[in-house]
Amino acid sequence: MQATLTASAPAVPTGLVRFIIVVTAISAAVMELIDVTIVNVALNEIAGALGATIEDVAWVVTSYAIANVIIIPMTGFLADYFGRKRYYVASIILFTVASYFCASSTSLWQLVFWRFIQGMGGGALLSTSQGIIFDAFPPDKRGVASGIFGMGIILGPTLGPFLGGVIVDNYHWSYIFYVNVPIGILATVLTMLYIAKKPGEGTRKHLIKIDYAGILLLSVGVGSLQYVLEKGQSDDWFESKAIVVLTLTAILGLGGFVWRQLTATHPVVNLRVLSKGTLGVTTIFSFVAGVGLFTSVFVYPVLVQRINGFTPTMTGISLLWPTLVGIPLFPLIGKRLSGGASPLPFIIIGMVTFVVFGFYSGTLNGQANQWDFFWAQMMRVVGVTMLQLPLINQAVAGLPPQDFPSAIALNNMIRQLGGAFGIALANTFVARDYAQHRYDLVANLDPANPLLAERLKLMGGASDRAYKLLDLAVDRQAYLLSYLDTFRLVGIFFLIILPLVYFLRTKKKSAEEIALAAKAMSEAH
User: Transmembrane residues, as ranges (predicted)?
Assistant: First the structure.
């Protein structure tokens, strides 16, 4: 059935057409969200298959996040320039093709490259899908649209680790990317057939100025900074010429980007809105929220598989149940915010929950089972849920309606940047902390200690095999302690910025402002 919508007759779809549009948009959004988390449970297998270290294989995650940082703030501009439907179809195709090449990769850096390309395509899917679903409903039903999309937002990250675990345990790791191909093809066909163009979309191309310099400076600055953070520890920081050069490149790139966005007539990212309302302070919270979310879901699978002996499926299940329990919170918070409730109490609860999560997770050990981790993961889910929508709501507090889209796009970009930074920080911190813990553990191995002698005896006596097993045990304990310290570090980040909630206080929004904010959030990029 061909949709009857046209650019000249923008009627709201009904019946089967609306159902197909919603399913198509949700499928594309969930596909992107699943791919953000599905990789985490497969990192050990990917590292082993491609002959890479866990530290290097982290680029598979961060390359996607970096691409998102670059593309998310440009999504609104690109949709205006090319037309929303055309850009949406191109993004699905790019994501699908990149997924195929990710699965076909035979080296780590080939996989990292295609993950970056996949992130460039995926960056548009979430926000554009949201706008498409919003337009498929009449104004009085758009609360239903928000609820449907909100459930999709929860569903994707929830299913990702579980599906990844099942695939990795029963098939080859490459199938975590191959599964996107049929979904992407179907979504492309349905989009072309059923999703109509908005009136006048793609016709303003001659009026839109492209900030090529801003795009280049953002890409160079973020890419250089990420390399420095990821490789600085292993390359001995400023003893490496490459690190020195890329540090200077990052400073010049990001500094130039900020200057360009503040002085350009048509900036790609409107940084001027940072001086309005509470957006400047809110972005600090969004950055740290990104650090907490990405770091915790990166470190946890590596910890439980490397130290606690979890299979990928066990890892996915251990992440699934806490998330399912936390799902009802999402629509409840959305309803409260839509009714005019202040986001501040939710943000405070989310911050405190993440502090407790970080320090509680730091008390677990190598013998912990799935249920021992359940409460920690439950706290993580509650923390993320309490922060996600309220921080977007807080981002537009005190701003004029015309600045809402820019504020939300900037807030989302900062969150992704925090995620990329968090993973790099976790890698560097674990490497340094592991070396210190190993040194301390080895220093305490006293040959005269009867307990050590007994341990060696159980391992087969003072033989090469026994010493090798002892070395592995020390290695395992050093990594365990470093991962636990990383969780504590996450808690410390949230604890440090918690006093800044004082600066988030704003006057109560009017009913009109609440309605405009809800509309902006539904169409935000």
Answer: 16-38, 58-80, 87-110, 144-163, 175-196, 208-229, 241-259, 279-303, 309-332, 344-361, 373-392, 486-504
Q: How far apart are alpha carbons 407 and 17 in whole angstroms?
A: 33
DSSP bridge pairs for 9: 6
pTM: 0.80
- CA 201 to each of CA 24, 149, 191, 196, 457: distance values in angstroms, whole numbers, following the listed order: 20, 23, 16, 10, 76
Mean pLDDT taken over the chain: 81
Torsion of the alpha carbons at 24, 29, 34 and 39, rounded to the nearest 10: 120
Other CB atoms within 10 A of residue 16 CB: 11
* Cα–Cα distance measured from residue 426 to residue 120, given in angstroms and rounded to the nearest whole number: 24
Residue burial 86-119, b: 16+ Cβ < 10 Å; e: rest: bbbbbbbbbbbbbbbbbbebeebeebbbbbbbbb
Measured CA to CA, the distance from residue 467 to residue 471 in angstroms comes to 6
Nearest to 327 by CA among 147, 520, 129, 130: 147
Tokens of 432: 């340094």
507 DSSP assignment: P
Cα–Cα distance measured from residue 198 to residue 239, given in angstroms and rounded to the nearest whole number: 55
Q: Which helix (H) or strand (E) holds 154?
A: helix 142-170
DSSP 6: B
Phi first, then psi, for residue 463 (nearest 5°) are: -115, 170
Burial 24-33 (b: 16+ CB within 10 A, else e): bbbbbbbbbb
Cα 48-52-54 angle, rounded to 5 deg: 85
Q: What is the pLDDT of residues 92-125, one digit of tens each?
A: 999 999 999 999 999 999 999 999 999 999 888 8
Reported as a single tens digit per residue, the pLDDT across 229-275 is: 777 777 777 778 888 998 999 999 999 999 998 888 888 778 888 88
